[in-house]
Amino acid sequence: MTQPLTVDELKRWVLFGASWRPRELSDDHAVVEMCQCTGELVEVRESTDPWVISYVRGKPDGDGQ
Fold it and tell me: How is the chain split into domains, by residue range?
């Protein structure tokens, strides 16, 4: 079983040149596609943590800006 996604992981992912994009986003659940720098999908992660949901909602393009 995969550990729930964290904000630190999202930030680190972008720091190393990759990107992420939300696949599903609701008030209580986020599903995020983790992609290589080329845009190729690496894995899909999810979280029910309100902090992660808020972060994803605030940065929908996953570029870390």
Answer: 7-58
Please give the Cα distance from 36 to 57 (Å, whole number). 21
Q: What is the pLDDT of residues 6-17, one digit of tens each?
A: 999 999 999 999
Residue 50, SS3 per DSSP: helix
The pTM score is 0.85
Compute CA distances 61 → 1, 20, 44, 45, whole Å. Answer: 27, 7, 15, 16
3-state secondary structure of 63: coil
What DSSP string runs through 14-27? HHTT-EEEEEEE-S
Closest among 18, 31, 38 to 57, alpha carbons compared: 31
